[in-house]
Amino acid sequence: MPPLTTSSAAPNGTGSANRGIAFGAAAYFLWGIVPAYWPLLQPAGSAEILAHRIAWSLVVMALLTAVLGRWAGIRGLSKRGWLMVTAASVLIAVNWGVYIHAVNTGHVVEAALGYFINPLVSVLLGVVVLRERLRVAQCAALVVAVAAVVVLAVDYGRLPWISLVLACSFGFYGLLKKTVPLDATASLTAESLVLAPVAIGYLLWLGPAGTFQGHGWGHALWLASAGLVTAVPLLLFGAGARLVPLATMGMLQYLAPILQFAWGVFVVHEPMPGSRWFGFALVWAALAIFTFDALRTRRKLPVTNLT
């Protein structure tokens, strides 16, 4: 579920814009309903699922990269480029692993919180790392978001670590992606190349203790499908980002955590006491302030894609 920051040309007419919005909405819709997918891969544990996702993502992304003719860019990466790719690979592996663990252990709502606050974390990282200056409305949004985290920490009886790890790993990943001179497809392929030896080595070490064998062809196919679950939304997002401005894609990004939140509350019935609703209300208020300010100033929103 890599977050992407990519350039986007202005739409060429209403038809192109509508197609771009449709592609973007489809991508975020798929990321939004992915909590329904990971439990289908059980009885595999989170680590095994993550390893299969990495391994099969490499297969799918390598084929796509070959079809699109993007291998030259990967082969031409500098040592510094590969260092950035390696760092990004570690971050995305952490993000994927924590998200799979969250979904399969009944913490979908907490995971959705991470994607709600991710744009605000990205702004904060811009200030801390890139020395960007905050506008008054952005400061207000961050203050409200911090208050929300405090409320939710009291409610949970602990810091909402799943949310914070997801949001921060996405944020730092987005910063690193800006330093890698590859498009989205080639970049994810390069990251899969870095991670695949570890993932495949882990699966070989598991051997018969893993679930790929001994649980039927259906289970094996579900595990292998993790590559497509990674690639298809990515391609839809890339197609949409080429047809509409990133500000539009930035508005669509909230579709995914909204769907994830709805899945956690209304489908798997995770507990939502009044204090937790209040904490989420503060998060949504912070996002409303942030989004209104972004639209008012016509600044581009940080855009992420999800699991």
UniProtKB/TrEMBL annotation:
Presence of the UniProt keyword Membrane in the record: yes
Keywords: Cell membrane, Membrane, Transmembrane, Transmembrane helix, Transport
Pfam families, alphabetized: EamA
Places the protein is found: Cell membrane
Residue ranges of domain EamA in the record: 19-152
NADP is among the record's keywords: no
Topology term for the membrane: Multi-pass membrane protein
Matches recorded under InterPro entries: EamA_dom, EmrE-like, RarD
Transmembrane segments: 21-38, 50-69, 81-100, 112-130, 137-154, 160-176, 188-207, 219-239, 251-269, 275-295
Family: Belongs to the EamA transporter family.
Record-linked PANTHER family: ACYL-MALONYL CONDENSING ENZYME-RELATED, SOLUTE CARRIER FAMILY 35 MEMBER G2-RELATED
Name under which the protein is recorded: EamA family transporter RarD
